[in-house]
Amino acid sequence: LAEGIPRPWRLIYYRARKMFDPNNYKGRYTKEEKEKLKKYHALHGNDWKKISEMMSRSNLSVAMKYSEIKSAINYGPWSKEETQKLRRAVEEVIRKRIETEDANSLSSSKKSHREILIDFEKLYQKLPWTEIEAKVGTRYWRQCKQKWTTILTNKMTKGQQLYRGTKGLQAKINLIKRLYEMKVEDANEVNWEELSNTIGDVPKAYVQAKFYKLKVSCVPFWQKKTFSEIVDYLFEEKLPELQEKL
Prior knowledge:
mainly alpha; 12 helices
């Protein structure tokens, strides 16, 4: 399988496990399930395999849900202090990763005195969000990821609002057209990196979030439609409306 997909075999393995795990698609956690999760974690710690079996949920699902409910989380606007903590946390994990990768090619003395150059992808791809969440303290991992995507997008676009006014309309039109041209049947088949260039120089998470907002606000009963049906509806019904406004 890995020979036909341009990704490391380990990522393909984890993705396949997630896709074909029947316990990964159980919907929202009920109040009773959240209480059970707290109870089981108190008994078994971070043994997510055991806890997942007891709750009939996937390992990843119970681990991520516990990170959301384990403590009091702030759901309001980010404070300046929280944002600074997030920036420091991301910088720490990225520096640690790069220094580990460079350990065999550079001596420690050289590394300590050099400026670490970071590839664009390393700023948002495969970051350890649960570790970052722990460093921030007052936000759970998904909030941290969304906030970091917003920070990156503002930096990369120099603060311009891509989804406002004429530029916003054009970005939506470009996104719908490109998705329709791809002719894919599943969201997992979409090259979100390529789509990010269609809208502008932004992280793929930003594009995914904008597509989600489009389908939720424009496609009736989108939950009951396939990915291709959602794209077809946007192309046939919403696109002409957007083009007329432009």
